[in-house]
Specification:
There is one protein chain. By secondary structure, this protein is an alpha+beta fold. It has four domains: about 120 residues, Serine Threonine Protein Phosphatase 5, Tetratricopeptide repeat, CATH 1.25.40.10; about 290 residues, Neuraminidase (6 Propeller); about 100 residues, Immunoglobulins (Immunoglobulin-like), CATH 2.60.40; about 110 residues, OmpA-like domain (60s Ribosomal Protein L30, Chain: A), CATH 3.30.1330.60. The chain has 13 helices and 36 strands. It starts with a helix and ends with a strand.
Length: about 700
């Protein structure tokens, strides 16, 4: 499952939101690799904490066998299930999640069990567990889509017989991960793999395999070769794309992924002359932001637009698909990147874009699918709008992760009067489905689609009605469910509808208001090519807003009434209660705001703009190491830095105050000499509280 190799090398699980349990192993590895691998691992918990899941499994199994209490067994069973899941062994993960729940581990174990059952295509069982999970956390709302999705996927699976598809594993697959093939200009396939042939000598301890490199192979050959020494290094590289004549290439590299000195992926560019066999030294594309991951580049048919996946916070959520146009008149040679519309992107993850003429294929776990990532297709209409994505269904998609589909145009012949058995389309895609022909991990498959036998004709006595196109938006106002309802820093179990909230919709000079009932629901019809703003309020809660745009959404004759959904989550106001701000870190002995802290403070600034009547106190806490007086002064300077940053974003200084607590209020219950590094980090925190 380590496809995106972070998808890629790791990011995959990091981007998983509360809805997803096993996106694809590949998406997460990178950010998780920022921990040190130099210490000798002696126990399963440490191996798991350091993302060394292949190492953790045998250690945890021994510890589980020795465990004496149900609490200990539940914790170890969950870590075992999660370790197996993260190395792509869902079948082995399932009984451990079941054991964790049986030993009172709670809702997390039940959630992992439900998503694992769905990935294994046990839809009826998954549906039941999702229903129980909603009851367990006190909100059937949270998993309603998953319950419906199981029923839909079950139907797609039953449609499979006789639909004209044939799928075969390619001969160059290895027992490791092989994924994301693309065509080289001479018909060979270039793909990504962590097989034993790679350049680096170290193993990636997340998977126990090597790091990712780029390879090339004849489609029917079992002997691939490494692609280019300028590209492949001891770090992770993968998912390239080429122009039509293979003189330009874009690929992804994660510099320093082994030691964690760079936890972010970037797209690199390399070129060569038509007669020159050497590729230029790869360089990162100039429009990329820091502290953001860029994946899966692909070129449009004319080669002038680059599409890619990115987790930019300006997107719709998770990883989204973006496009960027070449422009030799700009300083960088590129225009500003543009986000693809909500008809394509979701609050979850869209990845692995590839083009076949004007058709865009991509993978998503946000649109209705069969389990993990599914492959979808869309296309641009005459007005440059994207059609609603269509799921390719079984047998291309499965409960596992399916992604990176490419079409082999060279193999097709134009048939004026196609007959049953004639070839329609062929190509390649990647999956980690547990077939008998699978070699292990992610494998590359060749597919053929042929004209299926004719179906019996339908007799329709009702004349067709003229098409009426509509776009409907369904909205929900929600609140978070905390493990401890009185503690906003306790674990979030899910969300539930919030009754009585007011919602104001604004577009242009028009407005429309709603008051939601117990289901938190509101609904409205949308206009074409329009930007909408939605603001929700309720006494005792912080106001919040979201946006929706119908720009770039095409009409679809097969689905004339398109329905979209937004969610607005309101946070309860806990007055004079400190709330921890995540991802606010400071360099040692420093108090200036680092770039990786800015997104969190930007979101806090937006909360303050939407709630003009509140004042807050920014607090800073240190760990116990160091002199008391020094820690007190350092924490005060750090809190003031956060206040100064918010002021620079236009927040009235009269609404802000700074308070340094030093080491006086530790969050972790440990004596200073026995605190772990994780506990010290817990104590080094920045907080805010509403003071009026």
């Amino acid at each position: 499952m380590p496809h995106l190799f972070a998808t890629y090398f790791g990011l995959k699980y990091l981007i998983m939101n509360t809805k997803t349990t096993a996106l694809c192993f590949f998406l997460f590895l990178l950010l998780a690799s920022a921990c040190s691998y130099t210490l000798k691992i002696k126990d399963g918990g440490t191996a798991y904490e350091r993302k060394q899941f292949a190492t953790a499994v045998p250690l945890l199994e021994k510890e589980f066998a020795r465990a004496k209490t149900r609490k200990e067994k539940g914790q170890l069973a969950y870590l075992l299930g999660d370790s197996y899941r993260r190395i792509g062994q869902d079948e082995k993960a399932l009984p451990w999640f079941e054991a964790a729940y049986a030993n009172n581990f709670g809702a997390d174990a039940l959630k992992a069990q439900a998503f694992t059952l769905k990935k294994l295509e046990r839809y009826a069982a998954a549906r039941d567990v999702f229903k129980n999970l909603g009851i367990e956390i006190g909100s059937p709302y949270e998993y309603r889509k998953e319950i419906t999705g199981c029923t839909v996927a079950e139907g797609w699976l039953n449609e499979r017989p006789g639909n004209g598809w044939n799928i075969e594993s390619v001969p160059f697959n290895s027992p490791q991960n092989d994924f994301a093939p693309v065509f080289f200009h001479d018909g060979r396939l270039v793909f990504t793999s962590d097989r034993n042939m790679i350049v680096g000598k170290e193993n990636y301890r997340w998977t126990g395999n090597k790091f990712m490199d780029i390879f090339i192979a004849e489609p029917k050959s079992a002997s691939p070769q490494t692609f280019d020494s300028q590209w492949n290094t001891a770090s992770n590289e993968g998912t390239p794309c080429f122009n039509k004549v293979s003189t330009e290439a874009f690929f992804v590299r994660a510099v320093g992924a082994y030691k964690g000195d760079d936890a972010f992926c970037k797209i690199y560019y390399s070129e060569k002359g038509r007669t020159d066999a050497l590729w230029s030294v790869p360089a990162p594309l100039p429009f990329q932001k820091e502290k953001i991951n860029y994946f899966h580049p692909t070129l449009s048919a004319d080669g002038n637009t680059l599409y890619y996946a990115c987790n930019d916070p300006e997107g719709w959520g998770g990883f989204d698909l973006w496009s960027v146009q070449r422009n030799p008149k700009t300083e960088t040679g590129w225009d500003a990147p543009k986000l693809l519309p909500r008809s394509v992107n979701t609050p979850s993850n869209e990845l692995f874009p590839n083009f076949d003429a004007d058709t865009l294929y991509f993978a998503s776990d946000g649109h209705t699918g069969m389990g993990g990532l599914d492959i979808f297709r869309t296309y641009k209409s005459e007005k440059n709008a994207w059609s609603p994505p269509q799921n390719l269904k079984a047998p291309i998609n499965s409960g596992a992760d399916d992604f990176a589909l490419i079409v082999d145009r060279a193999s097709l012949s134009i048939v004026k009067d196609p007959k049953p058995g004639d070839l329609i389309k062929s190509g390649f895609f990647t999956s980690n489905r547990p077939l008998e022909t699978a070699k292990g991990g992610d494998d590359i498959y060749h597919f053929e689609q042929r004209v299926p036998p004719p179906k019996p004709p339908k007799v329709d006595t009702v004349p067709p009605k003229p098409l009426v196109y509509k776009m409907i938006l369904e909205g929900y106002v929600l609140e978070k469910i905390f493990a401890d309802p009185s503690n906003p820093n306790s674990k979030i179990l899910g969300r539930k509808p919030l009754s009585g909230a007011s919602v104001q919709a604004d577009w242009g000079s028009k407005k429309q208001g709603f008051t939601v009932k117990e289901d938190g629901f509101f609904k409205m019809e949308l206009a074409e090519n329009t930007d909408y703003n939605f603001n929700a309020t309720l006494a005792g809660y912080l106001a919040n807003s979201t946006k929706f745009s119908t720009k770039g959404i095409a009409k679809d004759p097969g689905n004339p009434v398109q329905t979209f959904e937004i969610e607005i989550v309101l946070d309860q106001i806990f007055r004079d209660r400190e709330i921890v701000l995540e991802n606010i870190y400071y360099d040692y002995d420093k108090w200036d705001i680092r770039p990786d802290a800015e997104p969190t403070l930007n979101r806090l600034a937006e909360v303050l703009r939407q709630n003009a009547g509140i004042r807050i106190q920014l607090g800073s806490h240190t760990d116990c190491r160091g002199n008391d007086a020094y820690n007190q002064g350092l924490s005060q300077r750090r809190a003031q830095s956060a206040v100064n940053y918010l002021i620079s974003k236009g927040i009235d200084p009269g609404r802000l105050s700074a308070k340094g607590y030093g080491e006086s209020q530790p969050a972790a219950d440990c004596s200073c000499s026995s605190c772990t590094e994780a506990e010290h980090q817990t104590n080094r925190r920045t907080t805010f509280k509403v003071v009026e």
